[in-house]
Amino acid sequence: ESAHIKDLLAMMRILSNPFDAISWQRIFLLLDGVGPSTAEELVSMLIEGKISIDDYSHVKNIKRGRESVEILFDKLQSITNSKFSPGEIASKLSEYYHPILRGKYDDYSKRQKDIDTFTTIAESYRSLNSFLNDMAIDPPTDTLGDILPDDHENEFLTLSTIHSAKGLEWKAVFLIWALEGRFPSAKSGDNLESMEEERRLFYVACTRAKDELYISYPVNIYDRETGFVLSRPSRFIDNIPDTDLERCVISDEE
Length: 254
Fold this sequence. Notes:
A two-stranded parallel sheet has the order 1-2. About 45% of the residues lie in helices and about 5% in strands. It starts with a helix and ends in a 16-residue tail after the last helix. The chain is mainly α. α1 (about 5-15) packs across α7 (about 130-135), α2 runs antiparallel to α3 and α4 runs antiparallel to α5 (about 85-105). α10 (about 190-205) links the parallel β1 and β2. The protein has helices at about 5-15, 20-30, 35-45, 65-80, 85-105, 110-120, 130-135, 145, 160-165, 190-205, 235-240, and strands at about 170-175, 210-215, 220-225, 230.
């Protein structure tokens, strides 16, 4: 269902790691005139250093699909030699991929919406590697058609990780476990970069809400991993003034 997104991710992984044989294999098999044997030959040439994104003159030696392979390398080289942001890379690759999308899928217009959302998500990143790492942690498994409700649906609940929610919006969002030691994670406390990544994720989660945002956390929860009792709200909300955040406590009545 998300093969088209995985195709784009494979191209981006190649830009990050030119020796990613699995991603190369996937992309080569998308090209006109390139079958399994030609794809295998090209991957071998890459591993052996006979061709690369910077120098692919030996591509002329392959018997089939040479033109489509050269067009692919031209596109990858133009991106590699420029300092594009992840969003710009996703946009340029989607332009290259569009004819392939139309030829491969009957529902290409539906899948194009997924690609547009994918590009929007990429635009929120500064680093290509950071974007790819997040996609590896929480890879796409559904199309927007499977995630979003039909127009005639009035009542529904969407459960999502923060990574999967990027690029999407809902009228009301419930952010749970906003507890110091969980969000941000206790493991991120010793590393400024990790803490900033947690802060960015928190921002992403909060900005998924169009009208209503509810942030909740439990109190006095024993954390087995750290051996501590967690009771403080996340530092990301602890200092928000009461004028900006309505607070309430929910307790069980005996």
